[in-house]
TrEMBL record:
GO terms under cellular component: cytosol
Name listed for the protein in its UniProt record: AsnC family transcriptional regulator
One of the GO BP terms on file: response to amino acid
Keyword Nucleotide-binding tagged: no
Listed Gene3D superfamilies: 3.30.70.920, Winged helix-like DNA-binding domain superfamily/Winged helix DNA-binding domain
SUPFAM superfamilies per record: Dimeric alpha+beta barrel, Winged helix' DNA-binding domain
A GO MF label: sequence-specific DNA binding
Keyword Transcription regulation: yes
Key words, A-Z: DNA-binding, Transcription, Transcription regulation
Every HTH asnC-type domain range: 3-64
Amino acid sequence: MQIDAVDQRIIALLVADARASYADIGARVSLSAPAVKRRVDRLRATGVIRGFTAVVDPAAVGWTTEAFVELFCAGRTTPAQIGVAARRHPEVVGAYTVSGEADALVHLRAADIGHLEAALERLRAESFVTSTRSTIVLSRLVESPGVGPSAGTS
């Protein structure tokens, strides 16, 4: 599917505010509301836009402690096995296969250090995990919900 510059701007605007009306988006990209709707429908139908979601401030719900955990796995552990295991833990907000020594990188959020420690212990108890290496986040410097360099720009 071809995505043109207007589609890219529509996507960036939706990433910045998924509740923006088609009329508001149309005014920003010089299209009518129905034209924007047709483009969004096409982007959804082709899987470019997979859905809309609420972005919750972790501090507002009390999950202010976070860490990145390198997983070291036994033998021929597959990415699918890691993904299934990661989804079992509510503290996991992201899991990725990576290059380097570790087999995967897991992003955890928790209410406090005790909660984080409990989550790490449960993650370490997965049958394929041989060891972990954790890094606790002290502060967030840059965070962008978008895709690509134009996300969130007008």
